[in-house]
Amino acid sequence: METRELRYFVAVAEELHFGRAAQRLGIAQPPLSRAIQQLERRLGAALLARGSRGVTLTEAGSVLLREGQAALDAIDAAERRTRRAALAPTGRPGVVLVTKAGATGELLAKLLDAYAAEPGAVAVDVMLCGIGEQERLLRDGRADVALLHRPFDSTAGFDTEELHAEGQVVVLPAGHPLTGRAHVRMSDVAALPGLPMPRWPNLDGTFPDGAGPPVHNHTQLLQLIALGRASAILPESVRAEPRDGLVTVPVADAPTVTTVIAWPPHSRSRAVAALVQAATRL
Amino acid sequence: METRELRYFVAVAEELHFGRAAQRLGIAQPPLSRAIQQLERRLGAALLARGSRGVTLTEAGSVLLREGQAALDAIDAAERRTRRAALAPTGRPGVVLVTKAGATGELLAKLLDAYAAEPGAVAVDVMLCGIGEQERLLRDGRADVALLHRPFDSTAGFDTEELHAEGQVVVLPAGHPLTGRAHVRMSDVAALPGLPMPRWPNLDGTFPDGAGPPVHNHTQLLQLIALGRASAILPESVRAEPRDGLVTVPVADAPTVTTVIAWPPHSRSRAVAALVQAATRL
DNA sequence: AGCGGCGATACCTCCCCGGTATCGGACCAG
DNA sequence: CTGGTCCGATACCGGGGAGGTATCGCCGCT
């Protein structure tokens, strides 16, 4: 199976429409139709059911969509990492580390310092990205190693090492009645009147339904809370950056947030290994 | 990057010889040389250093070899799993479960029974394979789920669920001086005079250096021990099949062997999920 | 110098990929 | 029922690229 065929199939399977898929791929529709037919013939499997009401996936088609996306990510990763390895002038390519913007400030700084102090350390590019993007970046080779936060991020398919565990706190506007309590429970803060939990965007940029205000990043969120328009449950490390107008109260029974360092399991990069080792020694 | 180019490169990188690689690929040497050059041009990276003393990998080449092998496995997996999904007459494809021959008899039987009793259970093909092959079968799609034994098998890159933990015993010929001891330590059995540990074949069929007799499977090993030619440290479940001429003694400080069920992290197969659930309920 | 091993180059052929034009069936409006 | 529209399939053509054979160029060895 050729990469080209796989890309074509995935495009059609995602669009469920030959014309739009062809447009997205930058080719005409007839060669796309032919390529898919040929793929189906070679696999001996019907992948798409062409009905009068458009195209649907068969059982085999769903399997190929899922597995094919993973395979295409692996190929992209191979290409990207090779390119990066090649353009390193020293012969020792740098490492791309990705983490959520604003989430891991202090830990990240300590990690970078500790690693930089090691003999043979190479350049570390730090990439900050939105929520849920890290896994994709690690999978398709745009990053080599990531700081993830369980249970929010899925670590499926990566090797990981735990770095730090912390409880969660509820962040409230100053003066809220719950202020001053030593701790609260999830049930106390699940639905505070007038202070809904914010909604974060999905990966495709849309927002889930709900009452809370849509937010894109930490700063927006904290500002909304200070204005008395929202509340949020966040890892207790938010206390490291105190802010006027905000109060935090520990939530006793909120799930523990674990910061882990994650990397692709087949990675044999010396730099990634050294970075992980430095991280575990923190 | 096309699958064909990647396969060509991996062949050359493994053989470190254009002529042999071409032979293995079933093509002539010149088109292979050209394909590799073209790949290097497109990636903008020197992958191979052509010296007068043959071919060696550059830094970028090693990266592409490793990442490329993973990507090719992912593509093979996509193809195999799609084929299997298609040829299922019911529209509900069967599952291929792989485990080491002879290692997990009773647990496997219970698992298959428990799963078969569930509503909506599909056919489970059981594949038995040699040591260390399971990971590859799971990775390239010839199997969908595996029973692995930590710490012998690596579970890197798979989702896992622990099923069973057990200690290890040393297996000795009947009448050996250590027989009758309630337990022994690793240092007691590390090098028993006249009873060397056996050597298992590597993945390529060669044997590591050492004193012990080469063995290919459990039966051979137990027979050699009964003959007084070897000893071995094995999970305590070997006691489930008692055998004349053999005695087992627990090894107090041997690493615990954990049986886990493992599957590819992106699997969304209902059947695999149900199988895992049945396994955790055992 | 001669030879052998090995990768690169030159040149040819044919297949396959992509393009345009067109067809054929399903659904819809009237 | 008929014309129109939407959409995937088919027909046909041209060019690029994949693979083959023959040969070269370089290096190391005897």
Number of helices of chain A: 9
Strand content of chain A: 15-25%
How large, in whole angstroms, is the Cα Rg of chain A? 23 Å
* Largest beta-sheet characterization of chain A: 5 strands, mixed
Task: Give the largest interface pair and sizes.
Answer: A-B, 48 and 46 residues
Order of helices and strands of chain A: HHHEEHEHEHEEEHHEEEH
- At the fold tier of CATH, the topology name of the largest domain in chain A is D-Maltodextrin-Binding Protein, domain 2
Instruction: Give the strand order of the largest sheet of chain A, numbering strands 1, 2, ... along the chain.
Output: 4-3-5-10-6
CATH H-level superfamily title of the largest domain in chain A: Periplasmic binding protein-like II
Helix content of chain A: 25-40%
CATH architecture of the largest domain in chain A: 3-Layer(aba) Sandwich
Terminal CA distance of chain A? 46 Å
The figure for the number of domains of chain A is: 3
Query: Which structural class fits the helix and strand makeup of chain A?
Result: alpha+beta
Give the CATH level 1 class of the largest domain in chain A: Alpha Beta
Mean pLDDT of chain A: 90
Contiguous uncertain segments of 5+ residues of chain A: none
Task: Tell me how many strands of chain A there are.
Answer: 10
Oligomer: homodimer
